[in-house]
Amino acid sequence: MKIPEIKNVYKMPESIRALLRESAEKYGDKIVYKYFTAPNEVSEMSYKDLYATFKNVGSAICSLNLNGKKIAIIGENSPMWMISLMAVISSGSVAIPLDKELMPAQIENFLSLAEAEAVFCSGSYVEKITAMNLPNVKVIVDFDNKGNGDNRYYSFEKFVSIGAKLVSGGDNRFRRCRYDRSKMSLLIFTSGTTGTSKGVMLSEDNVLTALTAASNMIHLKSENVLLSVLPMHHTYEMTAGQLTAIRLGLTICINNSLKYVMRNMKMFKPTAMVVVPLYVNTIKKKISDEIKNRNKQKVVDVGIKATKMLRKVGLDARSLVFSEVLGALGGKLKTMICGGAATDPEAIKWFENLGINVFQGYGITECSPLVAVNPMVNVNYNSVGLPIPGSRVKIIADDKGREVDLPCGEIGEICVKGGHVMLGYYNNEEATKAAFTKEGYFRTGDFGYMDRDNYLYITGRKKNIIILDNGKNVYPEEIEEYLERIDSIKESVVIGRENASGEVVITALIYPDYDMFKDCTEEQIADKMRSEIAVVNKALPTFKQIRNIEIKKNEFEKTTTRKIIRYKLS
């Protein structure tokens, strides 16, 4: 395979502020955001208005002496969410993007751990946050302008108007903000409770490095319309789906609900999407079912054969031949960038046959999050792509305490070095030290190999982490903490187990305390375990809930240090 040349068309911007200013100057009145303000009401925002609102929010932050502080952002996807994040970072503050699916107790824990002094949130979170014991929080800004809360409350509309008055009056505190862009600008908590979660510290330079690489490897033209479906708190969406899209001058249409994705595709007619495999598989299934229901499978198969032959002589008729099929996706979809979990190579080929290119990538939060991306030429269906420009990726193995670099084709741990790699874990020197090799490479904990053309392949995920089909990461230790509190459970391990449909489900392997069940049948023990699990599930977000249990009759096999040997359980 010929190694594609990645041209450095886009230089790294000086800052997020400079990125927004340059995009506003270049694209002006062009629409940057289309978003729902009511179930059937779509509003628009131009690049010029995006930059103006950003400056107003930043000025209000500075006027309340919040610049240089830690500020959390939580809620549904919206332009206000992204504007707030960019203004927080550009005021020299630390942005703390939180998953909107976190339980209230987890939100309170993270806000306390980070010593957050302000929270930008959707209206549904105002009352919850107001009720929390958060003495450090001085300001709560409501994206939905619902107009309730204590004396710390501001509607987003009011907050913007405060900033607008300052800007029009010549206040230049936000414009003159000076800070070190190599220091922490983002604090992203991994999933977990206080005891198991780690705070990933990213700098503005880390993010700018990643988005510049994405811009040059993805290189979508400004005419593209992007449908945004992933949560903005995730670095993948934040970097590739938002900041990169703004850098490239795209129009971003924000999806308002998972159940309305197909409807919104017809409405917005996107040309591109940034997705996880769940979306690739879901869209494929819906289209396949529709083809079968209309008895069109033979027609489609003939069309695929014919268009393949035409492409060999330089003619691409896929958009014409499959116009009816593609109409269900809005009729203009050409590109899907897929990350978050492994993508089925057969699904990639299936979409390519219809004229839609799926480019697989690989990343991790600690790398802002890009590690590798398939460039838009010479796509390798089985690989997650080439390491991003300016980075170094190598495969290592531990040989009796020594770090050994492995040659092409040999499987080991994927390690990364570059300007996109995190600063470390917040207030956790021990975890930070363990995360890096002696040469300063970040240990991803993922296993794979590289071929002679420098393409990266993933063969296994982190030892414990569960990657769900929707791309969400579930840390089993978090769930095990809840199980450890149950007296009737002596030992437990949480793993991802494929069910009969091939879907990964969270499964609890349980070794009960049989001393408590001497006179019970196996069914009675199982019933007791199921009832205990039901209680635990009430304390967990839906995607983390235990869906299956397996009762063990014997203790788990352990190491000499009494640690359960996990790899034998999957």
Short précis:
The protein is α/β, with parallel strands linked by helices. It is built from 17 helices and 27 strands.
Structure commentary:
- Helix content is 34%, strand content 24%.
- It has 570 residues and is an alpha/beta fold.
- A nine-stranded mixed beta sheet has the order 2-1-11-10-12-13-14-15-16, with helices on both faces. Strands 4-3-5-6-7 form a five-stranded parallel beta sheet, with helices on both faces.
- Helix 2 crosses helix 3 (79-90).
Largest sheet: 9 strands, mixed
Instruction: Give the class-level CATH name of one domain.
Output: Alpha Beta
What is the third-level CATH name, the topology of one domain?
Rossmann fold
Let me know the average pLDDT. 90
Q: Architecture of one domain in CATH?
A: 3-Layer(aba) Sandwich
Sheet/helix structural class: alpha/beta
Rg (C-alpha, Å): 25 Å
Low-confidence stretches: none
Query: Termini separation (Å)?
Result: 35 Å
Overall helicity: 25-40%
Write the layout of secondary structure elements.
Layout: H1 16-27, E1 31-38, E2 41-46, H2 47-63, E3 70-74, H3 79-90, E4 94-97, H4 104-114, E5 118-121, H5 123-131, E6 139-142, E7 153-155, H6 156-168, E8 184-189, E9 199-203, H7 204-218, E10 225-228, H8 235-248, E11 251-254, H9 261-268, E12 272-275, H10 277-293, H11 297-312, H12 318-321, H13 323-327, E13 335-338, H14 345-354, E14 357-363, E15 370-373, E16 386-387, E17 392-399, E18 402-405, E19 412-417, E20 424-425, H15 429-434, E21 442-450, E22 456-460, E23 466-467, E24 473-474, H16 476-484, E25 489-498, E26 504-512, H17 522-538, E27 548-551
Parallel strand pairs: 1-11, 3-4, 3-5, 5-6, 6-7, 10-11, 10-12, 12-13, 13-14, 26-27
Antiparallel strand pairs: 1-2, 8-9, 9-20, 14-15, 15-16, 17-18, 17-19, 19-21, 21-22, 23-24, 25-26
